[in-house]
């Protein structure tokens, strides 16, 4: 995996932490990972995230959510859509619906990172970063 795809890296770390039933996971803090974490938190997929570390080496510590006594991860699937080698854009009419609206698509729009629902509401298209459900 290319080291410069911070989003795929972030998704993989969350995926792996979920599989291992970790309470938290760390991802390098960038503007992008911060925005995605914010959307995941707003949509209730993670409980919280905070920044830790010094200067350049800042990390986001993401607290994962589980449900039930078997601690099933709330996030079943994290799917990277737009990759550095193949960007996927969608205009406002073609914004994807994930699992008929059960999941969310995280879109990078001119007005920032948001869910497909929010982008539709604001009449925006953009780069489809990933699907979460």
Automatic annotation (TrEMBL):
Q: Which Gene3D superfamilies match?
A: 3.30.1370.30, 3.30.1490.10
GO CC, one annotated term? ribosome
Read off the Pfam families from this record: Ribosomal_S8 (PF00410)
Query: GO terms for biological process?
Result: translation
**Gene Ontology molecular function, alphabetical:** rRNA binding; structural constituent of ribosome
Q: Which InterPro entries does this entry report, sorted A to Z?
A: Ribosomal_uS8 (IPR000630), Ribosomal_uS8_CS (IPR047863), Ribosomal_uS8_sf (IPR035987)
Keywords for the protein's UniProt record, in alphabetical order: Ribonucleoprotein, Ribosomal protein, RNA-binding, rRNA-binding
Q: How does this chain assemble?
A: Part of the 30S ribosomal subunit. Contacts proteins S5 and S12.
Which family does the record assign?
Belongs to the universal ribosomal protein uS8 family.
Role of this protein: One of the primary rRNA binding proteins, it binds directly to 16S rRNA central domain where it helps coordinate assembly of the platform of the 30S subunit.
What protein does this entry describe? Answer: Small ribosomal subunit protein uS8
